[in-house]
Amino acid sequence: IHFSGYQPSNIVEYVEMLDTELHVPEYLGRLISERRYPARVKGSVEQMSTPKNGGGCGRCHTDTYMEESFSLGTVDSAFCGGEQTNSLYATYRRSAKVASFRDSGVLFVRYLANDPKHGGPDDSMRFLDMNTPAFGEAYVSSKGNMLTLQKDSTAMLLAQPHCRADQSPYKLGQKDGITSLKLSLLMPAHYNRSKAVMVGNELISDFSFRSARVQPISIDTGDVFIHIDPLLPTDCERDCAMELVRENSYEAIHLINYRGPARAFTPSELARMLNGCVVTLRARADFASFEAFHKAMCEVRIHDYWAHLRYVVFQRKDIELEMVTSIETMSVQTAAVDGRTAEMPMIASSDIDVSRLPFVTGAVPRDEPFFPWKTLNVHPYGNSWGIGSRGLPGEEPYSKIVTEMKPDARQPI
Fold it and tell me: How buried is residue 111: exposed, middle or buried, by Cβ count under 10 Å (0-12/13-18/19+)?
């Protein structure tokens, strides 16, 4: 959510957009009522650079897989700092017959510092009357970097906390101290809870469990089974390696890097608080029992080791996922599915002929350069800038070069 989750500002920002009347073409509308399963969609989007997030322009690649009873989607890198990115997001139905939204569920992921609790009241909604009780849930933003790789109903996610000196974990450590760093998988349970949970070889009750070592987890949500294979979180003093807890109206799985006395972390230390997991969803109907699902999903091999690079390989009978990433800054060197480089098309779909979409095929009209301004001195832009060529008719390239260097070239926008 924009504006650090302040909902009144979001209302003002989006009211014009929501007032627009949109019409879905008939052939696309049929994707809702006549979708063929399994369905797959891949796409990519350009990501802008923002000085307050340390630059970072590039491309984000999305991957979505859907069966009749669930969907799983990922984006391989975060937008800006990741505060508004759902790097991994799953939806599932809790029963074969869905009568309302209460019969469905979701799973999403956050990297968190200092144990914020999901489901708490949103004080920002008191903007009409400070004396009225708060209503709505407070937005809890992620404090970490995440990279993903997906094949159909299985996705790998690698995570680390934000580690630059201008980002919140470092600032929090310097001001009040950090008491915890963890990767959290969250499942809203406002209307329905999980039916059963297995951790390792143990069937647990009431979503309550702690362990000194990471172990595989399976969850029976009703109509869909979910399996989570933790990777190997960096151990930096903690009371447990993983825990399953209820937080307000949420079921939460925490994979813990640090939990202890308040302390500061250097950027280099934060960059090495590595974490991650592999998430798999399967339809209940595909297995004889919940126990059979758990047994099949636990037959895996996991390599996870690092120095200046992190090497992760996940192998199961039906899949192999491999990622090699740098630690500082976190970026991808290798992303492979079943031994081959992961496909990252501009757009691909199992349901439609993407060549029929606008702007995808055919000749592209030339975009004539045209920049009529002489400077970039605009309020409140406070960054250094340069103009080498404006593309004006009759103006020779490089004939009007102008540059201005500012003392601090990384002002927020």
Answer: buried
Q: Cα(408)–Cα(330) distance, rounded to whole angstroms?
A: 25
121 upstream amide cis, omega within 30 of 0: no
Is 342 exposed, middle or buried, given 0-12, 13-18 or 19+ CB atoms closer than 10 A? buried
Q: Which two tokens stand for residue 165?
A: 């000196």
Distance CA 144, CA 110 (A): 8
Instruction: Report helix, strand or coil for 73.
Output: strand
Tokens of residue 179, six digits: 């008491």
Residue 100 makes CB contacts below 8 A (sequence gap 6+) with none
CA distance linking residue 2 with residue 13, whole number of Å:
9
At residue 70, the 3 state secondary structure works out as: strand
Q: Which residue has the tokens 């009209």?
A: 365
Distance CA 237, CA 105 (A): 34
How many CA atoms lie within 13 Å of 408's alpha carbon, on the beta-carbon side? 8
> What are the φ and ψ backbone dihedral angles of 286, each rounded to 5 degrees?
-80, -5
What is the value of pTM for the model shown?
Answer: 0.87
117-127 pLDDT, tens digit per residue, is 888 776 655 55
For 211, the token pair is 């362990």
Burial 202-227 (b: 16+ CB within 10 A, else e): eeeeebebebeebbbbbbbbbbbbbb
- Give the tens place of pLDDT for each residue, 221-256: 999 999 999 999 888 889 899 999 999 889 999 999
Distance, in Å, from the CA atom of 92 to the CA atom of 83, rounded to the nearest integer, reads 24
